[in-house]
Amino acid sequence: MKNHYLALSPVEVQIIDSYKTVLVGLGNYLGRGYELILHSLASLDHSVIAIVNGFHSGRKIGSPITNFALSMLQEIQESKDHSAISYLNKSASGVLLKSTTIPVTGDHDRIIGLICINFYTDTPLSSILDPLLISSGSSSTSTFNSKETFSEDIDDLIRSTLDDVKTSVEQNPSISTQNRNKEIIIMLYQKGIFQIKDSVVKVAQLMNISQNTVYMHIRNSKNKEGSYIS
Asked: Helix (H) and strand (E) counts for the chain?
């Protein structure tokens, strides 16, 4: 018989299930040296509902919670802010681990699950470096030629993105002068700038063109139905 620990509400089930994709994304980002486990406290006998790189410990979906995870849960529950705990640990085979236990909270801030991350320090350096080397042939990796913009506010984000796009367009000899504004709007659209509220108004002002012109170029560049334009 299952060892039921918590009765999760439908919303709490959705909350904890939403972390499954987070786990996969983190696993892709961090690489094979990291084991990531998502525990649901609905059942302690089968608490593992998602796992990445489980070959390290041999665990799989449906595995039970560990005594160490239970002790971390107890410590987190006794803390005032339910903050994550990082610590050094050892695997069953004696490998030194750098570990973190992160609580997943549900209704009334009660803990409904745990995310456990273990870095195996015996991981070969080549495996650690692999995630840092972006391969153009990887189906799970997207590469961009532009830089990421860290702005203090939305207006600055729009302005700096527009400046980058204008520079790119103006330096492209294949784009004629009369087509530059159109290409600039298309590139801004592709970068998602027009999902920002009032972005059409602000871009039109910065480019000294009418809002109707901006909308016209957006309509011509749409490749998906129902795209949002602010």
From this structure: 7, 5
Rounded to an integer, what distance in angstroms lies between the CA atom of residue 133 and that of residue 113?
A: 33
- DSSP string across 161-217: HHHHHHHHHHT-TTS-GGGHHHHHHHHHHHTTGGGSTTHHHHHHHHHT--HHHHHHH
> Is this prediction's pTM over 0.70?
no
Residue 223 has a pLDDT of: 53
Question: What digits encode the pLDDT tens for the residues 125-181?
Answer: 877 777 766 554 444 444 445 555 555 678 888 999 999 999 999 999 999 999 999
The Cα 204–Cα 185 span in angstroms is 10
Structure tokens at 104: 């997943």
The Cβ-side half-sphere exposure at 8, using a 13 Å CA radius, reads 21
Positive or negative: CA dihedral 88, 5, 79, 18: positive
Give the phi and the psi of residue 223 in degrees, each rounded to 5: -125, 5
